[in-house]
């Protein structure tokens, strides 16, 4: 018998350790298939609690959250949608209006919004007035012939 193969011998049950991962192989009922509980997750982030993951995500920009992190897996998509990450939003002209409006719709806890170089201020302020009831600070910086800078506090 080859050492790499484990043969089942009827009703007898043996345990054999795999040296590569330290998992145990069981014969008998499982038929030599490693039990799920012995596998370590391939992704080290999968062992972290959601609260820790949200804290890690708080160091990313909103563009990074939207373009990259939410596309990794279903769990990350759900965590990126957490309203806690969307309390302060800083947006430049490179974010499309449709994306920004979606962010505002899904940000019930938004307190601070900073807009730079945007030509869609009317649409954005209309959406803010309808969706972001907790907004405390709105900063609009619109580069043009007379760089307009306004800051409004509620």
In brief, what are we looking at here?
The protein is α/β, with parallel strands linked by helices and 154 residues long. Helix content is 27%, strand content 18%. The protein has a single domain (44-153), classed as Monooxygenase, CATH 1.20.1280.
Your description of this structure?
- With 154 residues, this protein is of the alpha/beta class.
- It has a single domain (44-153), classed as Monooxygenase (Up-down Bundle), CATH 1.20.1280.50.
- The chain contains 5 helices and 6 strands, in the order ββαααβαβαββ.
- The protein has helices spanning 50-57, 62-67, 74-80, 97-105, 121-131; strands at residues 15-17, 24-26, 88-91, 112-116, 137-142, 148-153.
- The strands form 2 sheets. The chain has a 4-stranded mixed sheet with strand order 3-4-5-6, with no helix packed on it.
- Strand 1 (15-17) and strand 2 (24-26) form a beta hairpin.
- Helix 4 runs parallel beside helix 5 (121-131).
- The longest helix is centred in the C-terminal third of the chain and has 11 residues, at 121-131.
- The radius of gyration is 26 Å and the shape is elongated.
- The termini are far apart.
- Residues 1-28 and 143-149 have low confidence and may be disordered.
Provide key terms for this protein:
single chain; 154 residues; alpha/beta; Monooxygenase; 4-stranded mixed sheet; two-stranded antiparallel ribbon; 5 helices; elongated; disordered N terminus; F-box-like_dom_sf; F-box_dom; F-box domain-containing protein
């Amino acid at each position: 018998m080859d050492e790499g193969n484990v043969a089942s011998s009827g009703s007898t049950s043996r345990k054999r350790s795999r040296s590569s991962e330290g998992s145990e192989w069981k014969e008998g009922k499982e038929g030599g298939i490693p039990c799920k509980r012995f596998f370590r997750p391939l992704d080290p982030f999968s062992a972290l609690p959601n609260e820790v993951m949200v804290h890690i995500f708080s160091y990313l920009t909103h563009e990074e959250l939207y373009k990259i992190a939410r596309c990794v897996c279903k769990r990350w998509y759900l965590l990126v949608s957490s309203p806690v990450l969307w309390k302060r939003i800083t947006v430049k002209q490179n974010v499309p209006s449709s994306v920004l409006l979606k962010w505002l719709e899904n940000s019930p806890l938004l307190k601070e919004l900073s807009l730079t170089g945007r030509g869609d201020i009317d649409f954005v302020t209309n959406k803010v007035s309808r969706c972001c009831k907790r907004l405390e600070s709105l900063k609009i910086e619109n580069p043009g012939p007379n760089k307009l800078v306004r800051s409004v506090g509620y």
